[in-house]
Fold each of these.
Amino acid sequence: MFEDFLEKNTTRFENSLKEILSDLRKDYENFWQEMMGNLTKKKLELEQTIKRTEAEKENKSKEVMLLSQDLVKLTEARKKEEERLKKYEIQQQEILNKIIEIEEKEKKSEEMAEIIKEKEIELLKKEDQVKLEVALLEERQRELKHIWEKVHPTQRG
């Protein structure tokens, strides 16, 4: 009787643990999908911004060339300098984007760590409760055994 009860509570505890772990896995998968969706969206936005920037640059270069042939040498030097600066700006923007991405990942990781910590606390509380119930059942079993032995004494040699 006690063993059935213990087995049932143990099974229930194991099922609770499995459900919690399943929920954690689902939360992580949802978090990952959301993060990848956001990164894809940001990538598309950056590609559009780069295309607009390149188009604007081409238009400005044409206007400068048309203004005066006397400024051709100056325009070429300016263009070379712009390309060099553009590379630095792109590198700087990439670094800033990576920093933002890392900060977002850290924030999400901290949130997930907090959720996991809360789940661990819940599990520990449930484990303590199960241990307490098992101890109470064992105590009750000892008491019942003692009463049984008093009611039905066995012959001893």
Amino acid sequence: MGNATHTVRKLAAETRVRATPMPAWQAWAEPERLKDWFMDEAAGEPSPGSEMTLGSSAFGMTAKVRVLQSVPGERFVIEWPGQPGRPQEEPRLWDISVTREGGEAVVRVVSSGFGEGEDWDDEYEGEQDGWPVALASYKYYVENHFGERRREITALRPVRERQADLRPFFTKPDLLYRWLTNKGELGAKGSVYSLELKDGRVWNGEVLVEAGNQCCISVRELDGVAALMSFIGQNGQRMAGVSVSAWKLEEASARELASTLNAALDALARPEN
């Protein structure tokens, strides 16, 4: 039911995962698998013509989407609702396709339906930076923890700085020191890192993504990933945040980490920074 067409502005992102096509597809289409790594609210049947509810409490987003196409192991296309008061020439679509190449699944996401002009630029640029980070988390989940529920910790704060001004705060040692770390820095994609956070805990891993105003790192101590980000929120407010998806983190340790990250974001949001 329904054909996915991509006109107006669109974005495309791709990743390869060490998995067969079926679990690679399930991680996008099945509500319980979506809750493992991406959304904390997911319900409904991933069948053509049906309606699903997707949401993230951390980012204050909940929406009912319509399933346009659903071919297990191959393709999943959903249509997002329009926003009141904003002209929209084409539906907002997410089109996820899965193909097999050798022993890997190639997953391609096309996000389309962005209009032209300033009303759409923030959303377009936010997804342009955000999809590589989302796919890095997706890849980590499918390859290491498929079928296991993550523990999510997200800390967000409104900030005054322009998004471009915040990027060095996520990578440079002197600027990381002003809010998140005692020592350490983040290099280019593929580089290894070691950070000591303000509470003394140490994170080690690899820089998975450095894209625009967001970066994503693996964290061995959490058996998970962490994203450092800045973006424009739904109300037009500039936001900064850290979002952690961990598959090896006890509840007490999660509370302590949440406190550390919230204090870090408070420091980052202070006018002197």
Amino acid sequence: MTETKNNSLVLFENVSKNYGKNRALAELTFSIESGSVTALAGPNGAGKSTSLKLICGLLRYRGSALFHGRQIRSITDLEIVRAAYFLPEDKELRPQSRVKEVLVEARELGGKRVDRKRLESLCEELSVNASLERRVRELTPGMRTALYLAVTLSTDAELYALDEPLSGLDPILRTRVIGHMKELAIRDGKTVIYSTHILEEAEEAADRIVFMDRGRALFSGGVDEAKERYREIIADGKEAETLRPGANGILHVRRETNGVVRALAETSGISLGHPGKSCPVSLRDLFLHLVEASREGGSR
């Protein structure tokens, strides 16, 4: 279910990470292509934040994690420090500072890495300028996110690792941020990897996706690839009774309370004359199938 590519910008192979007795990553394998927007999608505790921190050299780990073909060591690895920009999930840094002070500090500390015109434009577009005199702790969660996104997206980096960057944003700001994430990849050739647990959002923002659960990757590849590779077969009554894993390319079966059965199947394995109706599968339904199959000890 997972893919690996030797020419990837980031390549995880059998990466594991424990916090004491708690396992955050369990032999995690996935790849990130240069110039892409990749979503790490999964429930809370799937290992998304840990993966982002590890990519930026913030954590020790076991296994192989490569950046440009070199093992990721730690924050002391200057190549990682210069190339990656990490936006944490906790966006309450400097809570006592005023918004304008955060922006001044970003310009001063970022130096030439900060595109000042772009920062000014983003502050206007994301409505940050309306709160310049307010302290960070006084901002709504959405406006704190907008503030730190303005700084992040105006700072030059090869790779942007964003932890829940769309959390708390209203639909207008969310759409604008997604547009800027795509622009970084398409126009500037940058790589964006971000975490989310909202699959509909990932379908809009990302061209590649990694489904994660319990520290493992259930699928890694293109969003279009996922939709083309899998379909859902929907049936009820006697037809539903014939839908079982292993038949007609079926990987997993979900039975609903109204008697309807939804089966996930690989497109290539579906035969002519199969029972039920074959339909495209959404990322949300695909993820639910893969998670349930994994937890039930299914074929995938």
